[in-house]
Each structure stands twice: as C-alpha cells, then as structure tokens.
Design brief:
By secondary structure, this protein is α+β, with helices and mostly antiparallel strands. The protein contains one helix and ten strands; from the N terminus they run αββββββββββ. It has a single domain, classed as Immunoglobulin-like (Sandwich).
Length: 120
Amino acid sequence: MNIQTVASGRTRAFRNALDAGPRAAAPGTTQASDGHKEVNFELVASLAKEVLLAGDFTGWEKTPIKLRKGERGAWRATVKLPPGQYRYKFLVDGQWRDDPRAAARCPNPFGSCDSLLAIS
C-alpha cells in the first residue's frame, strides 16, 4: 500500500465518520449572527495544570486555544467557527488527549486518532 492509498483511505474514513455521527461533537453549539457557530469545548482533567485545544482550525500547535479551568476540574473554551469539517485534540500538560465527548474520530498520520467536528 502506498502513501496515496493510505491518505485516500483516511479521507474516506473521515467522511464516513462524519456522515455517521451527529453534526456537532461538542454540546452547546449555538448560531452566531455572522453564520459562524459558537462551539463549547469541555474536558474534565482535575489534576491538569494546562489544557489547550488544537486542531486544523488553530494550525494545530501554532496557535492553540487555552481552556479555562472551572468547577470540578472542567476546562472550557468557546470557539467561533464557520461551517465545515474539523479535526481536533486536547493537549493536557503537553500530552495529546482525545475528546471523550466527540461523536466521531478518524485516524491521523501519527498512529492515533483525531476527534471530528462537523458544523453545518
């Protein structure tokens, strides 16, 4: 199997996963006046010192979004995104973590999976 075949398979898996799941991975998605949607991301990590959100909408590690710690160890951030399909993960104290609330996941080139979000 060559690299192109693997990439095609991942793209197909990404589309299939999005078609199979709900249209938003994180609950609390609301419509903004400019056509974007506000998506509420949350991860419970009570012992964490820092939680970041990284995805293709942040350039991954180039400009991750810092989550704020709330009650009971729940870290939260609200992100305004245009309609589209997105891959993302949390970075907890320097370690990549999946979103346990994600409706779908897709393999990435690093041997793990990314969480998927589709906004219509």
